[in-house]
Design a protein that fits this description.
Shape: globular
Number of strands: 0
Number of helices: 19
Strand content: under 5%
Structural class: mainly alpha
Distance between the termini: 32 Å
Largest sheet: none
Helix content: over 70%
Order of helices and strands: HHHHHHHHHHHHHHHHHHH
Oligomer: single chain
Length: about 400
Amino acid sequence: MILYTRPPLVILYLALLAPAALHLPQPLLPSLTDLFEIESADTALLMTATLLPLGLMPIAYGYLLEGVSTRTMLYVSAIGIAITQLWMWAMPDYSNWFAARVALGLLLPALMTAAMTYASATVEKSARPHAMGLYIAGTIIGGFFGRMMAGWVSESFDLVSPPLVMAFLYLCAIPALHKLPREAGAGFARIRWSIAKDIFALPRFRAAYTTTFIVFFIFTAVTTLLPFEMRRIDPLVTNIELGLLYLGYLVGLIVSLNIRRLKARFKPETRLVISGLLMYIIGTVTLLKDDYLYAVGSLFFFCGGMFLVHTTLTGLLNRSLDHHHGVINGLYLAFYYTGGALGSHIPSRVYANSDWESVIFLCSGLIIFTLFLIHELKQEPALEDSKEK
């Protein structure tokens, strides 16, 4: 197989579209609540419906799709995702949107893993860090693009048009996928539970997985419920303005592109985790102020803290052991997205039965709890633990 200096453009394009489809409903949730005539907590389940499969399917797919080529996974999942978006556009009621979002959650892990595998497998070894940097940058831009596009399109046309636009964007990738070589390897591998159990028994890994679960729990809680709170404060706030709330998401670009410099300056790496958690709690607490512009500014701190913790933890775990990286990363994604799934549901019930302040206090308490896990993060795996079993 011919190796390149950067991933094919269609791979970076799909890296952008994956989080765009995942996060598309968030700024629309208050309006969808009125459209479907349901409770806000039920509308938030549209996020849970996609995030929960995202946490579970990377493990299941190791058994179902082991050996399937990345090009096949990209082709099938891209068409499948386009169909879910057309389904939402053609049948705009809550039950159909919920079912389509579940189907999306089943398809996104295949697309994301295949795209990541292709981004790594088709470039020269020396170019892989740069390739993965481009991939991560694409996902960050996509997370903002999906929310912003949904806000703009819904204001310009109607609430069910954003999925139609998303379907069109996915279908645009199909001709380019035909030109990709077939030789790239499979993206999934089986997770051996005996190895997973041994890894989770190590204090550093246990603390890191708990931290990432909590961090994405909070992130999803805040980004899902903030549009409801902004609409409560000002019923005239537009969907475009709700989409612009997530402008701070782009701070992730700065973090991901400068993580090596930050790691060189902050040693040990756990100092970066502490810094990220402190930024996180500042961004969370300042969201107590009932002001739109203040919320936009707070999300810069909030998102910056999340991406700093997330990026540092993934690097820390992958350098802690010389083997079993597939299991390490599979478990990380499982905890990450399962935390997000519960974060879109449990705080929504708190918000519906109490208020925004209760959600913020819950999230702040969880962040403080993660600070007590830092001493376990500092523990290097013992030599006998790092030997392959």
